[in-house]
Every structure is written in structure tokens, then in C-alpha cells.
Design brief:
alpha/beta; Rossmann fold; seven-stranded parallel β-sheet; five-stranded parallel β-sheet; 12 helices; globular; binds glyoxylic acid; D-glycerate dehydrogenase; D-isomer_DH_CS1; EC 1.1.1.-; D-isomer_2_OHA_DH_cat_dom; NAD(P)-bd_dom_sf
């Protein structure tokens, strides 16, 4: 009997082909709507492999019913939606899709720096709303990106890719990371700082740390108060790292200049979220890795991981 794979969101047929040849593949048939919990639990009961999205909570309860489960392949670099401890205890392999999304995510992160600093989205909205009535010397003026200082929190692969872009803009690069990143220091002249120093000295603060017990809520009112009133804050890894109420207050009071957000504490973020009412917020719906090429690559990588594990090989990007 063929082994069984469950995919929690509709993926294009052409990408699925290699899996279809080897395994029994079942799939949630909607692109827009996440698989309901009860369906996911039911499908997990018979699955040997799951291909999951960051919107799926893959917890101990699910693993408890998934008696045949051998691998959880997450279509993302982040994997905080998966209880990796529970997986480890049960000997279930967990994989992710790093590398293929690094440059694409760095592009979007840098786009958010530029959009927030230069007020691109609110200026565009004003134009579309007929509010561009005359050229004025200080109309729509923002903050510079070129020649300023960027502070990158979380200097992993994506952080380094953002730092390379920043060097092209003549920027100083500061970073904060659990461990020293010698490559970033040597190749990019990045300077490692304590968090408080980085916040105080940066013109653009970019959050790229993964969501963990340590990073949850690490940016709150105290941290935001350390930033320059002309500084931007960019959230590009996971929303729960910044306290959104404190961020709202800082942006509303103007203790920081602007924010660029790709991620939120709760996703999808409701359109009446207070942060979305502010003109100095540029907000996009978790699209860091969303180029056609990169998303197709991520699908291929996550399927290969399933094939590898089910065929007894070592997958390339194993998390546990
Ligand atoms: C997206 O957020 C990812 O972790 O790949
Ligand atoms: C992962 O978090 C990365 O930076 O690639």
C-alpha cells in the first residue's frame, strides 16, 4: 500500500506531480480558506506525512491522533506553528524551507523600510483620494534611507541579505543576535550591539528574529521609547515579538516615525485593527516570501522533504 500524504492547502497540480507518482495524496481543496481543525485532525489520523502552512497549529493533540505520522513539512522558514518538542518526543521529523526564500524576503523587508520611511502608502492613498492639490516644499516629506543606520534584530540568512542591500544604500549596519555573526561583521562591517543600544542608535530597526519563548514580546513600550522620533520599525518575522498596543501608542504619539508591518500577533489581521487606522503604518498581509518563483521553490523543497523522509533518506532542512 502506498504511503499517505495530506496537504493542508490547495497547491498547483504541476508542482504535485512528483508526489502523486509515489504516494496517496489528499489535499484541502481551497486556496483561500485554511483547513478547519476537525478536518485536519481527521486527515492526520491516517497521514504518514503532512505538508503544512504557518496558519495550521500542529500541536501535541494532533500528533496524539496522528499515529502514522513520520514527517511534518512546513511551507515556511519559521515553524512556531509546530510543537517541535512534541514532535521530537514522538520521533516525528519536522522540516522547513529556508534558503530559497532568503533574498525574496529580504526584498520585501527592504521595501517596507523604504515605504515606511518615505510615507509611500499614505502618500499614494492621498493621491488616489484627490488630496494632492499642489506641490508644497514639505508636502509628503519623510525620512531618508540612504546613508542612515539600520539596526537588524536577528542576523540570520535573511538579516544578512537585508544588510547587503543596506550596504548598497551606503548605510551603517548594526545587529543584535543571540550569537555573534562573524561573517556579517567581516563581509559587511556589521557591528554587534546590545538591544538597547541598537534601538537608540538606529534610524531603521528591522525585526527578523524567529518567534520563540525568548523573543515573544521583546519589543514593548520601554524598547520603543528608546528609539529615535525619526526612526522606523519594520516587523518582518513574526508579529508576537512586538507588543502591538505599545507600537500603536508610539506611532500615534509620534515617539517613532513610522512602521512597516508584514506580520501580526493574530493573522489574518482584521481590517479594523487599530494599527491599520494610522497613516504612518505601511501594512502588507504576510507576503515576505511571496514571489511566484520563490513560492514554487518552497513547494518543491517541502515536497522533496516528504519524499526523502518517507523513503528513509535524510531531508535537507530538518528542524527536529
Ligand atoms: C514565513 O513567514 C515563513 O516563515 O516562511
Ligand atoms: C531564518 O530565520 C533566516 O534568517 O533564514
Amino acid at each position: 500500500m502506498k504511503l499517505s500524504v495530506y496537504i493542508t492547502r490547495k497547491l498547483p497540480d504541476e508542482v504535485l506531480q512528483p508526489l502523486l507518482e509515489k504516494f496517496t495524496v489528499r489535499m484541502w481543496e481551497s486556496e483561500e480558506v485554511a483547513v478547519p481543525r476537525d478536518v485536519l485532525l481527521q486527515e492526520s489520523e491516517r497521514a504518514d506525512a503532512l505538508l503544512t502552512m504557518i496558519s495550521d497549529s500542529i500541536d501535541a493533540e494532533l500528533m496524539g491522533v496522528a499515529k502514522n505520522l513520520k514527517v511534518i513539512s512546513n511551507l515556511a522558514v519559521g515553524f512556531n506553528n509546530i510543537d517541535t518538542e512534541a514532535a521530537k518526543q514522538r520521533g516525528i521529523v519536522v522540516t522547513n524551507t529556508p534558503d530559497v526564500l532568503t533574498e525574496t524576503t529580504a526584498d520585501l523587508t527592504f521595501a517596507l523600510v523604504m515605504a515606511a520611511a518615505r510615507r509611500m502608502t499614505s502618500a499614494e492613498r492621498a493621491l488616489r483620494d484627490g488630496e494632492w492639490t499642489s506641490w508644497s516644499p514639505l508636502g509628503f516629506t519623510g525620512q531618508d534611507v540612504w546613508g542612515t543606520t539600520i539596526g537588524i534584530i536577528g542576523m540570520g540568512r535573511i538579516g544578512e541579505a537585508v544588510a547587503r542591500r543596506a550596504k548598497g544604500f551606503g548605510m551603517e549596519v548594526l545587529y543584535c543576535n543571540r550569537s555573534r555573526n562573524a561573517e556579517a561583521e567581516e563581509m559587511l562591517g556589521a557591528l554587534r550591539k546590545e538591544l538597547d543600544e541598537l534601538l537608540a542608535e538606529s534610524d531603521h530597526v528591522v525585526m527578523l528574529a524567529p518567534y520563540t519563548d525568548e523573543t515573544a514580546g521583546m519589543i514593548g513600550a520601554r524598547e520603543l521609547a528608546l528609539m529615535k522620533p525619526t526612526a522606523t520599525f519594520i516587523s518582518a518575522s513574526r508579529g508576537g515579538i512586538v507588543d502591538e498596543d505599545a507600537l500603536y501608542d508610539a506611532l500615534k504619539k509620534g515617539t517613532i516615525w513610522a512602521a512597516g508591518l508584514d506580520v501580526y500577533a493574530t493573522e489574518p489581521v482584521p481590517s479594523n485593527h487599530p494599527l491599520l487606522s494610522l497613516p504612518n503604518v505601511t501594512a502588507v498581509p504576510h507576503i515576505g516570501s511571496a514571489s511566484v518563483r520563490t513560492r514554487m521553490e518552497m513547494m518543491r523543497v517541502s515536497m522533496q522533504a516528504i519524499t526523502d523522509v518517507l523513503e528513509g533518506k535524510n531531508p535537507k532542512h530538518r528542524v527536529v
